[in-house]
Write a structure and sequence with these properties.
By secondary structure, this protein is an alpha+beta fold. The chain is built from two helices and nine strands, in the order αβββββββββα. Helix 1 packs antiparallel against helix 2. InterPro entries: Ice-binding_C (IPR013424). Keywords: Signal.
Amino acid sequence: MKQPFFNIIGLAFSLLFCIASPAKAGLITTEFSEVVNNQGTVDIYFSRDSGETIQGFSLYFSETVFADLNIISSPLDWDRIVLQPDALLGAGLFDSFNPNGLSSGVARIAFTYLSQLPLPALNYDFYDADFAVIESGTATNVIRSVPESASLMLLFMGLIALGLRARQQQEAV
C-alpha cells in the first residue's frame, strides 16, 4: 500500500526538477518601460545555468523599430558595446563579452521607438571564447521565466494532498 504513495512522490520530485532545471546554457529576458514620446528603456536580465560557459551574448534591435540605442548601465565585468541600427547595415546590437565567462546581471538600454506598440521580442546569440555561436533564441518580454518558490511550494503541497487522499482511499478499502 505504501509503494504507490512513494512512487507518486518520486514522480512529483522528478517533475519539479525538470521544471526548475531547463536545459539551456543561459537565459535572457527583457522588460520594457513605458514608451513616452517614443523614448523608452529596456532592462536586459541575463542569467547563466551552471552548465556550459558563455563568454558573450549579442541582443539584436531591428532597424525598422529602434534607433538611438544607448547603454545606461550594465555590470562592470562585462565588456559591452552598442552598435546603432541602420537601414543599410541592418539590426543594431547590444553586445557583452567577458573572457572569463559571463555571470548573471542586468543591463539597461535607452532607445527611440519607431513603430507602433506593442514592443517586440528581441533575438539573441550566445557565443564562446572563439566567438562561435552556442545558442540562438528570442528573449521573452517578462520579468521572470522561472517559477517562483511560492508556486512550486503550492504545486508540491497539492501533490502531497493528492497522495494522502489516495492513501486514505486505499486504506478504507
